[in-house]
Every structure is written in structure tokens, then in C-alpha cells.
Amino acid sequence: MAFSPFERMMAGRYLRARKAEGFVSVIAGFSFLGIMLGVATLIIVMSVMNGFREELVGRILGLNGHLNVYGLNGPIYDYKAMVDKIENTAGVESVRPMIEGQVLVSVNGAASGAMVRGLSLKDFKTKPILSEGIQAGNIDDFKDNNVAIGAEMARRMNVKIGDHITLISPKGKATPFGSVPRSGSYTVKMVFDVGMYEYNNGFVFMPLEAAQKFFMMEGGVNTLEIMANSPMNIERVKQDVIFAVKDDARVYDWRDANKSFINALDVERNVMFLILTLIIIVAAFNIISSMIMLVKDKGKDIAIMRTMGASRSMMLRIFILTGASIGVAGTFAGAMIGILFAVNIESIRQFLQKLTNTELFSSEIYFLSQLPAVVEWDEVITVISMALVISIAATIYPAWRASRLDPVEALRYE
Hints:
- This protein is of the alpha+beta class.
- It has two domains: 5-58 and 261-411, no CATH class; 73-246, no CATH class.
- The chain has 17 helices and ten strands.
- β2 (92-107) and β3 form a beta hairpin.
- α2 packs antiparallel against α16 (377-403).
- The protein is elongated and about 110 Å long.
């Protein structure tokens, strides 16, 4: 739809309302603000949720395998042969023999549950998020009866490097007096921070040999952790691994282990998109209201232009351009604000925390120590396009009313 210079001039004059038409101008201003805030909020929230998903999935995959192989009937004792089969499978990057088990951690009169993972020093070093997240201690001390614990667990239980902790297994050993829980004393030689509260608070890493002894799996492991070349295209690798291990083990991928978590993120993301879209729709109704009032207020002007030769289509375009200008300006202003806010959201959070002296983003609740945001440009384009369509659609009915106005009726009582 091409607009002539006359139509652009009239639309510009209607947007610059005179003092007598101030109320119409106020409604148009609120319409502009509504669309701007709606677009900005939608971009910010979607970027933060994208950041949450990417950060959480990245950290989960950094600490857990893309695939995990478990024995059918307890520990896998001939795991080296199985490792060789899996390593020769296409798409497999590495395989780490591990032991996982739940324990009770007791120290300084306090106790809490934790997950123990036993792995070799070589495999410990190949987990960048873990080896690079060591806050205190030396990674080469990961041997014998030395363990690594999370920073939050160390803070909560007042444990420092060199302190001893007691691990108690829920699976006891048989004695003439009944089943007695197994326990062992270990020295804390490393404190790590991986940026996720759940892992910092509830995980203990120990050497594989010490874990085998503690969980009574001498020469065996209970899981093989597999890292694939592409975690997002894991299905083909999973089928190849299943074929390699045949009926000797069960295979699960990271989507199986975190299925409810990933589904919850997707549902929350879609619901937030729908809810925040309503802000833009409400602002579009404000455009309709302001345009209807403008058409009613400019009835005399419309009638005069019609008698001077202006066509109905010209009236339609003038008022579409008037209303659409509000929506277009609000959309692009909101997009600019939303992108700038999303890109600098962590700095803004730190500033607001210092200003209000409150914690706005608790790692205990959100599992992350920083507020993440990832701007996906295809989503930004979708939001902008949607806002433009809604804004322009909101002008059609008032503009159509203006084009159908009868000049005779408009001037009858003037």
C-alpha cells in the first residue's frame, strides 16, 4: 500500500494533536507505551528463558553424560570390554567408567544426604566445567581417600581443605549382629563451584578405586558415561550404542534423565509467550479506541476533504497510516529497549541488587549463580512481526469507519 505525500502529511498532522485534542493524544501516547513495553517485556522474558535453558542444559551435559549405560543386574564387572565396544561406535567421543551412589555425609555434628560419583583422575580432568571450577585445592590430589565437594556444601557444613568427612552408605554389610551401615572417613582436598546450586550442595566426587571399595564393587562400576559428538542429535548414537551392548546393559540418554525438566521449561516458555502477547493485544485495543475517537473528532475534516475530491480509499490510507505509525514506533522502540536490556541483564541485576540491598536472583531457587539471557534473533523477528501485524490490524476498523463517513451527514449540523 503506497501512501501519497498528502496522505503522509495528514497522518502526521493527526499524530501531532492540537491542545483542544489533547485527550486523543494522551490515549495515543498510552498506546505507544503499551506496545513498547509489551514488545520489550516479551523479548526480555524470552531471552532470559532461552538463557535458562541453554545454561542449565549446558551445565547438566557438562557434569553428566550424553548417554549412560547401566548393568541389567547390578554392577558391570567386565566393563573394559564394554568400553572398547562403545568407543568403536560412530558418534561416540569418549566413555567414562563411573560409580554412582547415595550417601549420608556427616561432619562437625551435622549430616545431610549427597550423591557420590567415583571416577578416575583422568576422567575428572576431562570434565572442563568441573576441573575448571575448582575454587580451592589441587586437582592432582584427587587420589587415595581424598574427595572433592561442592562450595555450597562446604559453606553449609563449615568444611575446609584438609578436613575429614564421614560417608555412610544406606546399603549395610552383613554381620553376626545384623546389617550394619558401611561408613568411611575421607579427606576434603578440593572444593568446586560449577555454577549450579544443586551440584554445589549435594555432590561428592571421589577416586574410582576408593568408590569401588566403599560401595563394595571391587573391579566393577555401575554406569558408563558416554559423551557424544553432538548432544542434540543423540538418537542415532543411542541406537548404535544399544546395538553394541546388545542385551548386556540398558542405555539412557540425557533427554530421558531430564525429560520432565526439559518439558517443564518448554511449557513455561510457551505459556509466558502467550501471556505476554496479551500486553501487545491490550495496547492494540488502545490504538482502536484512540483511532475511533480521532475519527469522531475529525468528522468535519473528513467531510471537507471528501467534498474536495478525496476518495474513500484515501481516507482509509490516511487513518491506517496514523494508527500504524503508533504501532510501528512502539514496536521498534520496544525491540531496541528489550535487546539492550537482555544483553546487559546481569549488569542491571547487580546494579539493582546494590541499589535495593536485596537478592533478586537466588541460586538456591533458580539453580544458577548468574542471570542468563540469550537473544535469539529469529524470535526477535517473530515478536516484531507479530506486534506490527496486530498494530496494523487494529487500525483497519477505525480507518474503514472514516472512509464510510457520509460528508452530508457530517456537515448537516455545522
